[in-house]
Amino acid sequence: MRALLLALLLAGCSTAAVAPLLTSYRDPDVLIASKADFDATRYAGRWYEVARFPVPFQAGCAGAIAEYSTPENGTITLRNTCLDPSGDALRSITGSAEVTGPGRLTVELAGVPFTAPYWVLWTDTGYRTAVVGQPDGRAGWILNREPTIPTDRLRAAIEVLDFNGYDTTQLIVSRFNQN
User: Over the stretch 156-169, which tens digit does the pLDDT of each residue have?
Assistant: First the structure.
């Protein structure tokens, strides 16, 4: 979601630059489901990117941090920060999200003239690990409250992506999650 929107902003009108945005990492014939019992208040806070699908906005990012506020009147504020290999911020973008259904948000980023769907597909019961993506499959992430993730939760997150039709062989693992 954030990657697709910012990539369009950064890519301009070049056909060659826009081509990667047309890549979908999921089979459109597979049904996709968002988290029915999603709790936006529990989702608020800091998340570290564990893995992602390749998206132009995150080119050069060794990892990322996503921060979400507690919803006020249905609106969540957000900040996504791209990190370099040493963990320093390369760039960031702010925005807001509206909860539009169970596990479904519509995100608007500063300076981007349109919104995008952002679906929370799964969280573990403690909201320590999350799987998020776009229903068109152009972006997806595995997030965790800590920079590294236990093997069992990583395996579960990958299974959720697979179940929802994503090609998990295309995942890029964050540099900060490699032990």
Answer: 999 999 999 999 99
